[in-house]
Amino acid sequence: MYENFERIPAEEQERILGACIQQFAQHGYQEASTNAIVKQAGIPKGTLFFYFGNKKNLYLYVIDYAVERFVEAMDRMEAEREDQPPSDLFERLLDRGRRRMRFAIQEPSLYRLFFNAFLHTPPEIRAEIESRFSSYAAESARRLYAGLDRSPFRDGIQVEKAVALVNLVLEGAFSRYADQFRRGSPVDALALVEGLTLEVGQYFELIKHGVYQTPGNNR
Questions:
Q1: CA terminus-to-terminus distance, the chain
Q2: Confidence tier at 105 by pLDDT (50, 70, 90)
Q3: Phi then psi for 115, rounded to 5 degrees?
Q4: Distance set, CA 36 to CA 12, 23, 121, 178 (Å)
Q5: 59: left (phi over 0), alpha (psi -120 to 50) or beta
Q6: CA 1 remoteness from chain centre
Q7: Assessment of whether the complete model's pTM goes beyond 0.70
Q8: Distances, alpha carbon 43 to alpha carbons 17, 79, 145, in Å
Q9: Average pLDDT of 86-105?
Q10: Which residue from 18, 79, 124, 189 lies 20 to 30 Å from 32 (Cα-Cα)?
Q11: What is the pLDDT of residues 143-161, one digit of tens each?
Q12: What 3-state class would DSSP assign to 121?
């Protein structure tokens, strides 16, 4: 479907994708302007549709690209670590959150595009988004639970529901810090990560009292 686009030189692909990422990240799928994309990319509008057919195919291609870049970045950061992932659920999720924030600092537009696609999926393409990324979600969950220490949890607590609750806390905290990340310098962003980590850690301590066996069992 995308053979015409993938045959052009790599630098031209990057220029077009850069314009698409910026427009979709700032305005979302429905409000994004293909006129603005072709103006920034410096190509005729007919050329854009020659490459992608329509706006929906263009958006899905850009989302595929964003997910691939995100997964590559997360895998690279995982490979760079010198120890094993934490066995405690809260420490593991906080560790994941730090890596996500590193990606947000390095690739702010891709981060916004990627997570908005999942959090604010346009109804008309929800099925395509869910279908094409189901394998990514399954692999992410597999890695999260692999080697996880479940012994601290109270009897009857479903770990998956605890994870869902913690993810809601993380998404809320990340959303509140997102604009500050985009406006600040890299140095400012690193300071914000420290503040975010401290704040999220405090929330986690509260949740632990509800799902762990004893308040003192905080690993």
A1: 50
A2: confident
A3: -80, -30
A4: 17, 7, 22, 24
A5: alpha
A6: 26
A7: yes
A8: 12, 39, 46
A9: 85
A10: 189
A11: 888 888 988 988 888 888 8
A12: coil
- Is 124 buried (19+), middle (13-18) or exposed (0-12) by CB count in 10 A? exposed
Boundaries of every domain in the chain: 3-211
What is the CATH T-level fold of the domain 3-211, as seen in this structure?
A: Tetracycline Repressor; domain 2 (1.10.357)
Q: Which residues pair with 153 in a beta bridge?
A: 212
Counting Cβ atoms within 10 Å, is residue 167 exposed (0-12), middle (13-18) or buried (19+)? Answer: middle
- The residue with greater pLDDT, 62 or 200, is 62
Query: For residue 196, which of 118, 112, 105, 67 has the smallest C-alpha distance?
Result: 105
CA 46 vs CA 35, 37, 39, 51, 162: distances in Å: 10, 12, 12, 9, 49
* Mean of pLDDT values over 24-29: 90
Phi, psi of 212 (to 5 degrees): -90, 160
CA distance 175 to 167: 12
Give phi and psi for 153, each to the nearest 5. -75, 145
Look at residue 60 in the predicted model and tell me its pLDDT: 93
Query: By three-state DSSP, how is residue 153 classified?
Result: strand
Closest CA to 24 of 54, 51, 62, 64: 62
Both tokens of 50, joined, read: 């020659």
